[in-house]
Amino acid sequence: MELNDDARSMKSFSRRAFVIGALQFCFLGGLGVRLAWLQISQGQKYKRLSDRNRINIKMLAPSRGQIVDRFGVPLAVNNQNFRVLIVPEQAESVEKSLRQLQAHVDLSEEQIQKVLEQAKKSSKFLPLEVKDNLSWEDVARIEVNLPDLPGLSIDVGEVRSYPYGPATAHIVGYVGLPSKSELAENQTLNLPGFKIGKTGIEKKYDDELRGVSGASEVEVNVIGREVRELGRQVSRGGERVVLSIDAELQRFMQDRLSQQKSASAVVIDAHTGAVYGLASYPDFDPNLFTHGLSASAWEELLADPGHPLTNKAVAGQYPPASTFKMVTAIAGLRAGKITGDRTVFCSGHYDYGGDRFHCWKPSGHGTVNLIDALAMSCDTYFYQISTEIGIDNIAQVARELGLGEKLSFDLPEESPGLVPDKDWKMGYHGSSWKPGETIVASIGQGYLQATPLQLAVMTARLVNGGYAVKPWLSAYVGQHEERREDFPKLDIHEWHLHLVKQGMDKVVNNQKGTAYGSRIVQPDMAMGGKTGTAQVKRITAAQRQAGISNEELPWKYRHHGLFVGYAPVNDPRYVCCVVVEHGVGGSATAAPLARDILFETQKRDPGASQISPETVFKNNVVKAG
Amino acid sequence: MNDSIRIHSNHNFFERLHYINWGLVFVILIVSGIGFAALYSAAGGSFSPWASRQIMRFAFGIVVMFVIALIDVRWWYKLAWPAYWLGFVMLLFVEIMGHVGMGAQRWIDLGFIRLQPSELMKIAVVMVLARYFNTATLEDMRRISFLLIPAGVVLLPVALVMLQPDLGTALMIGMAATAMFFMAGASLWLFGVGALLIAGMIPLAWHFMHDYQKQRVLTFLNPESDPLGAGYHITQSKIALGSGGIEGKGFLNGSQSHLNFLPEKQTDFIFTLWAEEWGLMGGLVLLTLFGMIFFYGFWISRRCRHNFGRYLALGLTVNFSLYVFINIGMVMGLMPVVGAPLPLISYGGTSMLAALIGFGLIMSCHIFRDSRVTRV
Q1: Rounded to an integer, what is the distance from CA A248 to the centroid of its chain?
Q2: Is B149 a member of any domain?
C-alpha cells in the first residue's frame, strides 16, 4: 500500500515537474525571441538610420561655479572657449580627418600624434579635444568646411579664467585635467577637456563648484547637422562661492611682498576670524594652467627656491621667534611668576646649568619689567621666566592661542605647525626634555614651528579680549553659510592681556621699541605688534666673536624676519602677520611691510561691510591680472 | 538506468566531493565570469568600483556554496523550520526598524554585507514547504485542512514583505510557493480558484499601491507616453538593446550604457549593457547558460530519491528562474520595472549570496540523493 502510494506520488511529481520544466523553457524561449525581435527588427531600423542619419550623443558640461570676493568681485570665472572635437567613430580615419583639418587651422604634428594616441586608448564614440582656444576666423573656416571633415565638430566650451591672476593664485587655486585615478571615480570627468580643482578653494569646494553634467541624444544627418533631439538630461551649474577676501587688498599685499625674494602675509579680522588677505610670494599665474602648462614652465616653477606653488601663508612653518614672547609672558603671568612690577636684570646673556644663552643685545638691557622686555624684545627676561614655569605651562598657553595644530581652515594646504612639550619629546625623540630646551623655546626657537596664519590667529586671540577665533575664507557656498562665529572665551585673565597689549603698543609706538621706525603716525590708525627674528642657522661662537653681521651670509642662511601686528591700537580690528624668508630681521623687513598692509587695510576697511550670498560687484570692469 | 540498492547514507568527505555536480559548478563560473566582464565594462573599463568587489563577494559566496553542498541534506531537512523562523524574525526586525524612522530600509547592515532578509526568506519558504510535503500522500494533498499550514507559511512572509512595500518580492515568493504546491500534487481546481481570487483582488491591491508603483504599471502599459519621465528607463533600455544588433557594439563600446543614458547599469540593467555590447549572440549565449542551469536543477530533482530533495531542488530552480524571467523581461519591456537583480550577474552582495546558497542546497540534494529522509 505504502509502495503503491509512493509510486503514484512519483508519477504525479514526474508529470508536474515536466510541466514546470516545460514552462521554464517556454519563458526562456520567449525571452530569446523578444531579444531577437528587438535586436534584428529594431536593429535593422537603426542600421537604416545610420546610413543617412545617426544618433549622436552630446555631453552637456555643467558650468563651473564662480568664486568671488566679499564685494562680489570675480576671482574665478568661465570664459567661452571654441574648440574642435573629433568623434573617432564618425571619422573614416582619424588621421585623415586631422590632416584635412591641418589645411584650415594651424595644427602641429605633435598635437596630431597626441590625439591619435588618445583615440587608441578611449572608447570610439567619445569625443576627443583636438584644439581649443580657436579664434573666430578658425571657427568660421572649420564651420564652412565641416562636410569635408568627417567626425569633426565645433563646440563651445568654457575655460576657467582668473581675473586677478597671480594675486589670488594661492587662495583660489587652479583647475587642471583629472588624473587617471580621479577619472575612474566619476564618469562626468570623461567629458573632453573637463577640468577639476587641483589646489586652493578650487580643490576644497570642487564638488560644489563642479555641478552635474547632462547629456543630449540627438539624431544628426550625414554632415552632422542635428535633426531632432531624442532625449535630454539637463546639466546643473555649480555653486557660487563667496570668499571673505578683499581682492584689491589682496593685490596690494601681493604687490608689496614682491619687493622681497620670498615672503608671505595674512590679514584677518580679530573678532570674526574673516581672512581679508592671504598673500604668498613668489607666485604664479593660474591662467597658464588652464591652457596647459608646458613641461619646461612646470619644471621652472618646481625648481624655483622661493617655491612659487606653495602657499607659504598657510603651509610655511617657521620658528615664531620673538613673536612667541607673548605666549611665555601669559604663561608667566598665569603661573604668578610675573607680576606688574617683576623685573629681571639683563647683562646680555643668561647662564644656566653651565650653558650660556645670549640676548640679542650683547651689552644687555639692564633691569627690565615685562612691558619693556616686550618692547625691547629682551631675551634674558623670558629665559629667566621660563626656567621658573617650565615648558608644559608654556605649551599649554601656545595651544590655547591656536598654535601647534591645524585650524580647520578652508585651504587643503594648511600645515599644523609644532608646539613641543615633555610628552611630545619623549614620544617623538625618545628622550627626556632638557631645561635648556625650555629656555630656547621661551623665545620661540628650537622645536617650535608656526605658520603665518597661526601667528595671526594667536595675535587676534591676544587682542580681541581672549576669544578663540578661527580663521575662515569661504562665507557662502551657494546659499549655504560657511563662516563660523560665536567663538568661546579663553581662560586668560583680562589684566594679563592688558599688560601684554601694553607691551605690544610700546614695541611700535615708543622710541625704545624694536619697531618704532615702522609706526603709523596717524593717531587713529596706529598699530601695535611684535617683531621676531628667527634663526635659520646657529650663530657660531666664532661668528659672534668676529662680529659677522647676518646680512653678509649667503641668502639661504640669513634669519627670517617676522612681524605680528594689529590696528587700531586702542580698538583692535585688523590683525596682520608678515614673514619675510631670510629677511635678516623682523624690524628691518617684516615690520615696514606690516605697516603698509595695516594702513591700507584700515583705509579700505573691508570689515565694515556685510557679506551676503547674492553679493554682486556693481562695477563690472575688472582689470585682467 | 541501473537502480542500485546501495544506500549512500554517510559518504566520506572525498566521496562527497566526487558527487558534487561539477558541470553545474562550471556553468555557474561562466555566468559569474560574464557578470564580472559586464561590471568591468560598466565602470568604463575598470575593476573598481564594481567588478573587483563583486569578485570578492563571489569568492566568499562560492565557499559558502560548497560548504552547504557538502553538508548532509538531512541537516537541511532539520534546519528548515529554524531557518524559516530566523528569516521571519529578521524580516520583522527590518519592518519595525522601518517604522522607527529609518525609511523604507530593507536590509540589515552586518558591516561586510547588507543582508536583505527577504532574499533569505525566499529560500527558507521553499525549504519549509519541501519538508512539509516530504511525507505527504496524494490524499493528504487533496485535503484542504492539510494545506492550511503551508498556506500560512507562505502568506505570513508575503504579508510582511508587502508591508515594506516590496510588491516584486511578495509576488516572487507567491509564485515559487505556487510551483511547490503544484509539484507536490495539490488539486488543479485549487489553482483555478487561486487565480480567480487574485484577479478579484487586483482592484483592491491597486487601491493600496503607492503612487510610484501605480506609475510603474501605467508606464509599463504605455512606455512611450512619457519618454523623458518614468518611461525613460524602458525606452532607453530598448534603444540600447536594439542598437546592439546581432553582433553588438563590442566590449567597452556600449555607447548607451556608458554615457549614462541607461540607469542602474551595474545592477538592474546589466543585461542591457551585456546585450548592447555583445549583441544578439551574447544575449542568446547568456540565455542558453541560464537554460543549462535550469536543466541541471530539473535533472537533479528528477534523480533524487526522496521527496524533500525533489521539491527542494525544483523549488529553488524555479525561484532562480523567476529572477531571470523578471529581470530580463523587465529590461526588454515585457514587464513593469520592479527592481529585481539578474542573479549571479548584477552588482550586489545579497542576491549573489542568495543564489549561491540556493545552488549549495541543490547540490546537497544531489550528493545525498539516495539518503533516507524522514521525520525524526
Answers
A1: 19
A2: yes
